[in-house]
Structures are given as structure tokens and as C-alpha cells.
Amino acid sequence: MSRFSLFLLPAIGFALAGCRGWQSALDAQGPQASELAWLFWIFTWVLGAIWLAVMIALAAALLRSPASRPDPLLVNPAQDRRYAAVVASLAVATGVVVLVLTGLSVVSQRNLFRVEEEAVTIRVTGRQWWWEIRYEEADASRSFTTANEIHLPVGKPVKIILNSADVIHSFWVPSLMGKQDLIKGQENDIRLVADRPGIYRGQCAEFCGLQHAHMGILAVAESQQDFERWRDAQIRPAEPPGDPERQKGQAAFLTQPCIMCHSVRGTPAGGKVAPDLTHVGSRKYLAAGTLPMSRGNLAAWIVDPHGIKPGVNMPTIKLQPDDLNAIASYLEGLK
Amino acid sequence: MSDALARRDERDLRDTMVDGSELHARLAKTWGTGRGLIAALSTVDHKIVARRYLVTAFVFLFLGGLSAAAMRIQLARPENQFIGPDLYNQLFTMHGTTMMFLFAVPVMEAVGIYLVPLMLGTRNIAFPRLNAFSYWVFLFGGLFLWVAFILNIGPDVGWFAYTPLSGPQYSPGKRTDVWAQMITFTEIAALATAVEFIVTILKQRAPGMTLDRIPLFVWAILVTSFVIVFAMPAVMVASTMLILDRLIGTHFFNPSEGGDSLLWQHLFWFFGHPEVYIIFLPAAGMVSSIVVAFARRPALGYLPLVLSLIAVGFLSFGLWVHHMFTTGLPQLGAAFFTANSMLIAIPNGIQIFCWIATLWGGKPVFRTPLLFVLGFFFIFVLGGLSGIMLASVPIDTQVHDTYFVVAHFHYVLIGGAVFPLLGAVYYWFPKITGRMMSERLGRWNFWLAFIGFNLAFFPMHLLGLQGMPRRVYTYQPEMGWGTLNLLATIGSVILLISFVLFLWNVVSSNRRGEIAGDNPWDAGTLEWATSSPPPPQNFDRIPLVTSREPLWAERGPLPVVGGLAVDMRQVVVGTVTEARPILRESSPEPSIWPLFAAIAVGGTFLGSIFTPWAVVWGSIPVAITLIGWFWPSGSPEDEK
Amino acid sequence: MSALARLLLLVLLAFAGCQREERSFRADPVATESIEKVALVPLSPGPSGPVTDTSGKGKEYENNAYHLAQGKTLYKWMNCNGCHANGGGGSGPALIDDLWIYGGSIENIVQTIREGRPNGMPSFRGKIPDDQIWQIAGFVRSMSGNVPKDAAPGRDDALHPRPAENRTPEFPPVSGGAPPPR
User: Fold this and answer.
1) Does domain C55-176 have CATH number 3.40.50.300?
2) pLDDT tens-digit profile of B153-202?
3) Pairing mode of beta strands A169-171, A291-292
4) Among B373, B392, B396, B468, which would you mutate to test the A interface (most chain A Cβ atoms within 10 Å of its Cβ)?
5) Domain residue spans in chain C?
């Protein structure tokens, strides 16, 4: 990384810090992302070296101190021919470098988009400004819908089908794979594998309107057993609440505007235009990667969504304070 | 000349018959712009139009810069509450649109409009009334956009306005229509100037200026003009289709009725990528001019430099898909565009090598213009190399639409176009105003711009790799992007200060700068052969060109050709390749009609975002003003 | 000079429309229900017409492009099209014509949505927040060409069986959404 070290030395520190970020392209956690990181570093080294060489040549050209030139047209043809030869050979060298880099890029592209038999198929539908996630199984009773958080078994190829319900979004979890757009009217797909268990964050990468900034997604990679456990839990409808506060919350939820948009499987709530809340309490984040899941944040989000995501499609509704607490408690309990 | 009776006889007065100061005065009267408001609005003098273009474009630069500063303040720390998402989206759209359509392209054209006729040794640009018209249309388009912004009708869908976000369903109101119609304004202006350049450069060169004696800057403008002619119609068609979708319910970009939202991206980037070279190629021409003048030797590799310009012009049309690598195109197709995008590094590399070789073989004189060119090398080469990364499909899937790309194109556009442009202003300012810019302020300006720029934009590479997407109005503290963003904001403030300093230098040097003389840098091209600022007729007699750097070849007075009328506007028209003079062509007189035509066209465009009938009714005033424009005025040139 | 005049003209033109582009996301005051007193008939005893008392919220909503566009989205999301189709009517009456059983002002429509009406129109009070009811009502008005054309939503990005709201003709179509007789 010659240019990193040359100027802006502190940048190294940041860059390294970036490697550990949970949404960093250089923190590769799967074969696809590693392929990308490897290619990125090759390019960076080669091109950094070229930049350095050009700068050295420029400095040398400036630091030579030839005699002053009263007559600018007085040139030495033999010398110019030598310069021309150097320029020509550098042009050829540029061509060779470009050719090699193109070759590397094409090979890497083939590796990246190689199709393997997938173990899990996830359909991700982009919406303003959240992700609808549907796990698709041949057995329809084992298909289910959730939102804003995907789980994947470690080491298994996952196929992600991308589509959009409205404008163009882009699915990007940098630690696992490069991005791919979600476009209405066409279906894209990518395949990825997570090597290690962990939680990797992603974010919508194509400008999609007011709340483009708050459209995060979490990819949770876990062992096969954990994944199965999670999937079995997600397939089940919501458990009826046990304690009185949550019961009150459920009653409030079902009589308030919430049900116009949200679904909770196992209850009459069947709205289809907002995230499915059947197991909302099991998710790690709220409002598409905006707030960590907690009862307090749930209440804050319900009471003033536009304070947190101005312009979001979730309306501000009139709620009595104890109803609010009860609903937050009910939703938190939907594990 | 005061003798009206003698006018008939004088109509055929040639410059061979009068001499010295009388010739100068008569020509100045023939070519001059009168006094008063009407005369000022009617002028067709390329230098006056170019000055207006320059000033207007720089005003837009400052407006665009201020909107960038507002965005940087908002992003300086996580969860900042300075600007909300609605205004932020308008701001980044205004920033991008202003910088690309209202600053970068017009300012390059402005420099060309000023310099090309001077460098070619002719008296005015071809189609001077069209030139005046293009300025007015550009001005109205820019005003239209910014007035709309002030009234909260500023477009908020990005300068790329991807459908369906910009379509009727997801962009209510008139905001996007304002954007789309502004495109039509500025593209008409750009197309008009491109046509003028092509004709001027091919037909109006001074006798003896064969194709291989054309200054490199003029070559750059010629190639740019051809790129404009082929690229701009794509975006005009696209923006018109968008307005049709929005206003009368067509379905060009609507997949459920047989349209395709990706069609927008193809059309937009088919223009959008050549656009980058429309901005960069003239800047490359400026670099060539400055390098040659300050290395004090002819360009090493004139032919490769020209061929590189042409190659870049051609290749620029084969790159557009690298903006769409993540849209799910066929892999092989994408790989083809990888190869093509990388290929363009070769001609650009050749240009860089030739410039460095020229500096190597010369004796560099370190004045401000050269400093900016050196800054250009530092920044542009870096930006070009990160561009090679973006050309690779796999790498692009990671860094596309992140701050890495923001860093990349600011390195390319500010490094590749704005630094040379500032150098060019320092270089040609004495020609335009007759006074030198302050060297001391110039050095401050350069170093502040250089440091501020790198501080502002280098960290963005890292931010992009750390996963920060573009066009987000805020980010959460736990993302860990705060420090680098703060650094970038500090850098952008320094950059802004450098531009304020530049403005101050321009204003104060214009008043009190050292008197420059005709050729303060002892440069070799023709624009330095006339006085500073040049008289309305540019040259009293048309020079005869025998070399690429006529002023270096002829230390005495230049050889000239004679025979042009003195009391009528005439220019020499020559053959395309050898510039052998073939006829004396009359050049149009000033006219107020281009302004009226621009008002009529502007009114039509403005109305057409409200009702399609505006096109029908608007065509009547447009037709009237065009008839007025072309009506034979009975002036001498018509009788010949 | 004429540039200046043009600028002034633009400013004047646009000032009329600038609230059309405002985007207020948070209803103000939050989630309170405004009381509109609008009569359903033009008759009333005495010399004056019926007493009406409106909050003025109607103008704010039916002249604003953002509200109308949101209304268009909500019209589908809240399943209005389940009965009224795309305005042509189904089990519910058509909305693109000039026949209003319970009044055609935005206040009337808000009341209709909020309170429900006999013979099938459910009450949405407490199910749809008040500002969204206003947005939907504004959109319903736009379907019959009753809002400013430059604020009315354009066509959908979906199959669309009738002209977009901003192309809806000014003459009122006949009941049922059939093409107007020529």
C-alpha cells in the first residue's frame, strides 16, 4: 500500500480499523468476499506501485536542472527520439499491465459468480425502506416470511434471489459478497457462503429515496444446528402471550391501526405492506438496522417513527401510554 | 468612416488599403459591440459571450460548492441533525447537477469559446448568434434549476435520476420535472457550442495552420465537440421520455406495461460516461498548453497526444456499462466492458507519459499555472488508477455506490478538470483582462486547494471500503465512520477557503494586477500574438501560420495575409486539412433575436413541465423569434 | 434585464405552487383528529346556507403533491381498491365520477372514511391515523380531477386502467367510470 504509507500516514490506522468493521469490504468472512479482497489488494499494490513510479518520474523530470532555454524551439532530435522510445515502451507496458489486470478480473469474476447447488434459498424483496425476507422451501409449509435479518448456515452455499417491490435497491453485505441490485420487473440472484459464525451488517447501496440511509440488513451466520433451531422457531406462528401485560398488549395491538399493515402469524393481524412481526422480538435490530432491539426502542419507534426515520411509511398513531408499553412488551415477547 | 456618403465606396475597403492605427480603429468599429443595454444583450463577440459563460459557470461552481459544504457539515459526525433527509437529497442532487451540467461542461466550453478563435487566428467563432443563443439558454436553464431549489421544488432524485425512483409514482410533484427539463436547456446549449467549435476549427483556421499545426488545446476541443454531438442527444431523449412518463403517462420506463427501468440507465450512462471525457479532454488540452509553455519546449509527441485524444473520444462510448455492473447484466457482456474500460488507460497513460517527457526535456518554470498542473498529475493519476479498479467487475461489486466511488470521481474530476482549469485561469487571465494574477496568492491558493482536496477526498476511499454507501444523509455512531468523515469535512472547508482565495485573487488582480503585456509567459501559440485583452477583431491582420508555435518560430512580426474587408465582418474560410484559404465569408452582425429566441425556447420548456400543450403554443413564439433571427437585414453582407 | 424579468415571473409563478412541494412527514399536531363540520346537503332553514366549520386542513392536503402521492399508495395499502377498484367502483361506488352520495368535498370524504357509511363502507376511525385519512381523501378527490393538476399524482408503475390523476379530464366523467359521451 505505497500510497497509504506515503501520504496520510494515519490512514493506515483507519484502514486497519476498517478491516475489523462489521460492514467492511476488507473484512472478508467467506470465499466470495475473500476472492474480492484478494483481487482488491492485487490491484491496489500494482496500481499503487505504478502511481509511485509515475510520481518519481515526474519528480525526476522537475528536479533535473538543465540549462535555461532562451530558444524553446531548440531541441535535440536524438534526445527526443530516445524520449519517444521510452514513452512508446511505457505505453506498451501500460497495455501489458492492463491486459494482465483484465485477465485477473475476468478469472475472479468467474469464481465469484460460479453456481453451486444451494442449501438455502432466500428471496429478498426491497421495499422503501426495509427488506422483506422469505425463506423458500419446496415444502410450502416450511416457507416463511421475516424482515431485515437473514440467517445462514456456516459453510453452506446460499442463494439469494433479489427483487424489488418499488424502486431500485441494492443488496450489499460487504463481508460476504459484493452488491447486486434489486430491480422491479427483473430477478437477480447472488450466491454466497459464510465461513465463520458472526453477525455481518449490510446496507442498501442504491439511492432509494428519503430513508436510503436507514435501510440496513443483518446477516447472521451460525452453525447448522443453530440455524435449524432458528428456522424451526421462525416457521412456528407466534405463541399466545402468557403474562397479563403482554396479553393486554396483544389486545391493544389487534385493535389499533398496527394490523392494517403488519402481520403476526397466529393472530388476525394480516397486513402485508409492512414487516412481518411474528418473531420481531428475536431480531437484533429494529426499523431496518436502525435501533438495537429493546423494549425501550420499540416504544420509542412506535411513538415517533418520524423522529427516527423522517419520511418513513410507518405513521404516527395515537396511543394511550399504557397501551404503548403493553404493545412494546408484547412485541418484545414475540421471540 | 464618419462619412456616411463614402460608405458605398468603402464597402469594399480591404485591409490591404489601410494601415496601422487606422486599420485597427476601423476594424474595431466593425467588430465592436456598441454601448448600451440593447447592444450588450445583442453582442455576438465570442470573447464577451465567453466571459459571461465563465462568470456564470463560476457562480454555479460556488453554489455547487456551498451545497457540498452543507452536506459535509451534516456528515461531519454521526446522527447529525443539521440537515434532514428531504433537504439533503435535494442538496446532493443540486450539487451533482450543478457541477456537471452548469459548471464543468459550460466552463470548458467557455474557455474554448474564448480561446479557440484566438488560437486559430480568426475573428469570431462560427455561428456567433447561435453562440449568444447558447449562452442565454444555459443561463435560463441554470436559473430555472436554482430558483426551483430556493422554492423547495429542487430535484431530489440524484443527478442520475434513476427510474422508477424518478418516475411518476415515486417522485410526486414537479421536482423531477425541473431536473429533466434543466437537462434539455443545458444540452441544447452544449450541442450548439459543439457545432460552432467543429465548424470553426475545421473551416476557420488561419492560412497555413494545417491539421498538424493546430494547438493541442484546440484539438482537445474538437474531439470534445464530436463527443458532445454524439453523447448529448442520448440524455436529451432520455430526459424527454422521463417527462413524458411523468406528465402524460407513457410507459417507457415502466416494466409492468412493457417498458424497462434499466433502459433509463443505459441511455443516461451512454451520455454519462462520455460526459466525463467531455469535461476531461478540454482540461487535457489546457494541461498540454501549460506544460508546453512552462517547460519551454514544444510538446514531445504531438502526434501521440492528438491520437490519444481521439482514441479517448472513441473509447469513451464503450464504457457506459461499467456504471451498471451490479444490475445483473450478463457476465460476458460485463467482462467486455471491463476490458474496454481498462483499455482507455492506454491513451490516457500515453498523454501522461508525453507530458512528463516534455517536462523532462524542457526547463520547467515554476509559476502558479504549472503548480496546478503538477497537482493535476498527483491527483488525476491516482484517480485514474482507482478507475482501473472500478473497471473490474468483481471489485466494482464491492465499491460501487460507496464513498470509494465518490473519492474516485472527485480525484478524476477535480484533479483532472478543476486543477487544470484553475491553472488555465492563472495562465490565460492576463490575456482576458490584461493583468497578471497575484503569484503569492496563487501559491497559497494552490497549496490550500491541494492539501484541502486530498484531506477531503482521500479518506473517502477508506470510508467506502469500510462500507459507507453514497447518498446517505446520516450514519449511526456504531458504524465507526465518524473520524474519517470529520477529517473529510475539515478538508472540504480548507478546499472551500482556497476557492474563496481564488475568487479574491481574481477580483483584486482584475483591479490592481500587474499589467501583463501581449505575451507575459513568452508562450508560442497565436492567442498571445494579439494585445491583452484582445481587440474586438482579435487580429488586425490574419496571421500566416508556418509552425505549431508561431510566436516561437517568428521572433519578429508574424507574416500576415491580407484582403479581408475592413468595414464589413469577414472571416477567412479555408480547406479542412491544409487551411488553404478558399473564400471570404461574412460573419453575422450583432442581433437581439438570439436572446428573444432563448426566452421563447425557455418559456416553452418551462411551460412543458406543466402541460404538453406548451410545446404546441410555445412553438409559435419560437418560430417568430427564429424568423426574426434569420430575416435578411439588408446589411452589406447580405447583398454580396 | 429580461433575465431579471423572467426570474421575477418565475418566482411569482412558483410561489403560488411552493406549498405543493412541501413534505411534512410528521402530522401536526401529532395524531389528533380534527373536527370538520360540513353539511351533506345544500339546504338549510333560514336565508343562509348550511353552517360549515372546517379546520382548513383540506386545502393543505389536497394541494400538496407529497400528500396526494402518499394517499395514492395508502389507497392500495389500506385495501380501498378492494371495493372501489382503481376508482371505477366494484362493490363500492365509483370514485372517478361526479356523483357523491355523501358529499364530494375533502372534508366529506374524510368523514366518510372515518365514520363509515351505511350499506358497506366501514369506519376506519382508530384504524387509519388521521393524517393518512386526509391523504387518502385528497387522493380520492384527485381521481375525479378535483385537485390542482400539477400536484396530482402521475400514473402508476403498474397496469393502469384509466388516465393518471394528472391527466384526468376536467369535465366530470359519468357514473361508473365509463368513457364520457361525446
Assistant:
1) no
2) 999 999 999 999 999 999 999 999 999 999 999 999 999 999 999 999 99
3) unpaired
4) B392
5) 55-176
